[in-house]
Amino acid sequence: MTTDRDITATIDALPGLDSSAPPLEVKDLQVEFRTRNGIAHAVNGVSFSLQPGETLAILGESGCGKSVTAQAIMGIIDSPPGYVTGGEIRYRGVDLLKLPESQRRKIRANRIAMIFQDALSALNPVFTVGFQLSELFRKHRGMSRADSKARAVELLDLVKIPAARQRVNDFPHQFSGGMRQRVMIAMALALDPEVLIADEPTTALDVTVQAQVMSLLAELQRERNMGLVLITHDMGVVADVADRISVMYAGRVVEEAPVRDIYASPAHPYTKALLESIPRIDLKGQQLNVIKGLPPALTNIPPGCSFNPRCRYAQDICRADPPPPRFPVAPTRTSACHFWKEVKGDE
Ligand code: SF4
C-alpha cells in the first residue's frame, strides 16, 4: 500500500521543490490551437499565483481562455490541435512543463485536482460512484477493495450526500445534478490536493443548488487550507467566495485585484462593463447595460488592445499599441489599459 507519507516523500524529492513557494504559480503561459482556419491564440501570456487557503477567481466570457488555462495546468489539452508554446506552470517552485509525464502525473493526481463543469459527462456512466471513488484509492494508494470502499463512503459523507453507505452503490444517473457535482468534489478531494481548480462548477445547477455547492466548496477549502482556482463567468458567485479576481479577455489577464477593489472601482473598461451588466434590483425597470459586440475570434485578435472594438474609452493609441500587460495600478492590483486612471476615476 502507498501511504500519503510515501507520496509526500516522492514529491518532496523532486529537484527544485521549495515548500515555501506557492502551490501554484503560472507565468506568461501561452497556448495555441492549430486549426484549419489558422492558429487560435487561446492563452496569451497569462500569469498568476495562488497561496494556500486562497481563492482566485478567473473571470471572463466564454472563449476568453480561462478553461484552456485550467486544462494546460492539468496537462489535459488535446494535442494536436492544442499546444502549450511557452511559459511556466510551477508547483512549489517546480516547473511542471519541464517534468517527465510520469512525475507530472503524480503531482496532478495528488497535489492539483480539478472539478469539471459537467459532472454527468465527467463521471463514467457504467460504474457506480463508489467504484469510481474507490478506484482512486486502489490505483494511487494501493488500498484493498474493502478499505477503498470504506474511504469512498467517508468521502460521500464529507460532501454531505445523505445515506452515503447506500448511495455509494448507485450509478451517476441516479443522482440529481447537485448531488453529482458533490460526487465530483469528493473525487477531486479524494487524494487530499493542495490546489483545487473548479471550472464553472455550478453553471449547470439551479440557483439554490448553486449556493449549496459553493458553500460546501468554501467550507472544505477552509478546513483543508486548500488553494482554490474558481473559473467562472458569474460575477455573483465570485463576490461571495473569492479573495482575488483575474479578469480575462481574448486570452489575456486584463485586470487582477482583490475582490473588494474590483467591485469598488474597476481599473479596466472590460471589468467595468461586466459589473455594469449585472442586473440590479435598485435599477428595476431600467435598461440593462450590455457589452456591445462579441469577443474577437482567437484566430484574428485585433491589433493594439484586443478590447478596443468594444471599448467606450478607446482612443487612437489603443488601436495601435497594446497596453503593457499587468501594469501595476496599486501595490496589489494590475490593469492592462492605457487609460486605467480615467476608468477607475482617479483622473
Ligand atoms: Fe479600452 Fe484602450 Fe484601455 Fe483597451 S487600452 S481597454 S481600448 S481604453
List keywords for this structure.
single chain; eight-stranded mixed sheet; four-stranded antiparallel sheet; alpha/beta; binds iron/sulfur cluster
What does this structure look like?
The chain is α/β, with parallel strands linked by helices. The protein is 36% helix and 22% strand. The protein has helices at residues 4-12, 66-74, 101-110, 119-122, 129-141, 145-158, 164-167, 177-189, 207-224, 235-241, 259-264, 269-276, 316-320, 340-344; strands at residues 24-35, 38-50, 55-59, 82-91, 94-95, 112-115, 195-199, 227-232, 244-249, 252-258, 327-330, 333-335. The protein has an eight-stranded mixed beta sheet, sandwiched between helices. It starts with a helix and ends with a helix. The structure holds iron/sulfur cluster.
What topology emerges from the helices and strands here?
Blueprint: H1 4-12, E1 24-35, E2 38-50, E3 55-59, H2 66-74, E4 82-91, E5 94-95, H3 101-110, E6 112-115, H4 119-122, H5 129-141, H6 145-158, H7 164-167, H8 177-189, E7 195-199, H9 207-224, E8 227-232, H10 235-241, E9 244-249, E10 252-258, H11 259-264, H12 269-276, H13 316-320, E11 327-330, E12 333-335, H14 340-344
Parallel strand pairs: 3-8, 3-9, 6-7, 7-8
Antiparallel strand pairs: 1-2, 1-4, 4-5, 9-10, 10-12, 11-12
Bound molecules: iron/sulfur cluster.
